[in-house]
């Protein structure tokens, strides 16, 4: 019961932080806030002592006027928790839960120890931990308001712990001419939908394909600039990086084994959680067999893509188990 109450309080606080950032008046302030959260996450994850963590987190809050404004907004929302939509049991538990966050010298410091509005967010970040801070970032970067500054946001995303095994070259490719995912209007009738997908501009097809990942709640973007990895889009799943290759081929131009083999190698070298090949055609038998040798590669043919328009995918995976054979 206690764990359920604590988890509920954390989810509410994540929403409070995300709302405060989304409601900032300038788009660039949202980027500043995302960078602040990323830096705060690094502090929380560090091995330094509790007091030093508090000092560094407090310094980060005071480093920019925009962050001070967000912190004040969070403090006001938390202080007005009695008027919030929190369940009654959580409203009762909230004061005691927050008061016991920092243990300094064996004594609970409580909110008052950091006096004033800016001390409250410091304690809350400690309480939420790295996972909670990541959830705030994800809630903000997947919002429509954030997409106008996708390049700056990607800088924050690629420093995420989930991408620690991604090479510097791949991270550079992730930042090259990024484009926000765009869900283009599509015909409802199936044959018209298929033809529309075949007729799409290749770059628009990539952005449209990546919109399914964004709609599922993942951080996602396409890249206009070609790269040595053959990756057209990226998404960050809770379990790691997703790389996407888009093939807007004619119906008779099937994707073959060499394409799958090459992309499978990229996914393995970059420790990608999954690699998707999305095409408006289909795959040869050899290509399907090659993909079946690993859990990392997912093939999406035209029939699958049509189904995505009817039933949006959720991208819930089991962890990849590696290749069956080389």
UniProtKB/TrEMBL annotation:
Coiled-coil residue windows: none
Domain Restriction endonuclease type IV Mrr: 198-308
Entry superkingdom: Bacteria
Membrane-spanning residues: 92-114, 120-141
UniProt record, GO biological process: DNA restriction-modification system
Family matches, as Pfam families: Mrr_cat
Stored InterPro entries: Restrct_endonuc-II-like, Restrct_endonuc_IV_Mrr, tRNA_endonuc-like_dom_sf, Type_IV_Methyl-Rstrct_Enzyme
Keyword Membrane: yes
MF-aspect GO terms: DNA binding; restriction endodeoxyribonuclease activity
Keywords, sorted A to Z: Endonuclease, Hydrolase, Membrane, Nuclease, Transmembrane, Transmembrane helix
Protein's name according to its UniProt entry: Restriction endonuclease
Annotated organism of origin: Bradyrhizobium macuxiense
Upper classification of the organism: Bacteria, Pseudomonadati, Pseudomonadota, Alphaproteobacteria, Hyphomicrobiales
């Amino acid at each position: 019961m206690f764990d359920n109450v604590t988890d509920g309080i954390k989810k509410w606080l994540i929403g409070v932080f995300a709302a405060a950032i989304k409601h900032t008046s300038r788009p660039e302030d949202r980027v500043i806030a995302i960078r602040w959260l990323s830096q705060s996450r690094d502090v929380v994850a560090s091995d330094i002592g509790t007091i030093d963590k508090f000092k560094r987190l407090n310094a980060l809050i005071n480093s920019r006027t925009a962050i001070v404004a967000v912190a004040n907004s969070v403090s006001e929302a938390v202080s007005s928790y009695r008027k919030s939509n929190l369940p009654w049991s959580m409203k009762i538990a909230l004061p005691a839960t927050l008061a016991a966050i920092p243990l300094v010298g064996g004594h609970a410091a409580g909110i008052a120890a950091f006096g004033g509005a800016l001390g409250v967010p410091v304690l809350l970040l400690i309480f939420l931990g790295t996972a909670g801070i990541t959830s705030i970032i994800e809630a903000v970067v997947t919002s429509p308001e954030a997409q106008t500054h996708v390049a700056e946001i990607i800088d924050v995303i690629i420093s995420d712990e989930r991408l620690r095994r991604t090479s510097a070259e791949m991270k550079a490719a992730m930042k090259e001419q990024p484009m926000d995912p765009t869900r283009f209007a599509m015909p409802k009738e199936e044959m018209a939908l298929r033809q529309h997908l075949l007729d799409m501009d290749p770059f628009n097809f990539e952005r449209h394909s990546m919109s399914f990942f964004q709609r599922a709640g993942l951080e996602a973007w396409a890249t206009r600039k070609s790269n040595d990895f053959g990756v057209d889009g990226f998404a960050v799943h809770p379990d790691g990086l997703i790389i996407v290759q888009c093939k807007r081929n004619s119906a008779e131009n099937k994707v073959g084994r060499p394409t799958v083999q090459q992309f499978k190698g990229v996914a393995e070298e970059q420790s990608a959680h999954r690699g998707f090949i999305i095409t408006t055609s289909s795959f040869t038998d050899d290509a399907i067999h090659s993909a079946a040798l690993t859990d990392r590669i997912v093939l999406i043919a035209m029939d699958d893509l049509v189904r995505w328009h009817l039933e949006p995918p959720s991208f819930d995976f089991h962890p990849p188990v590696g290749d069956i054979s080389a």
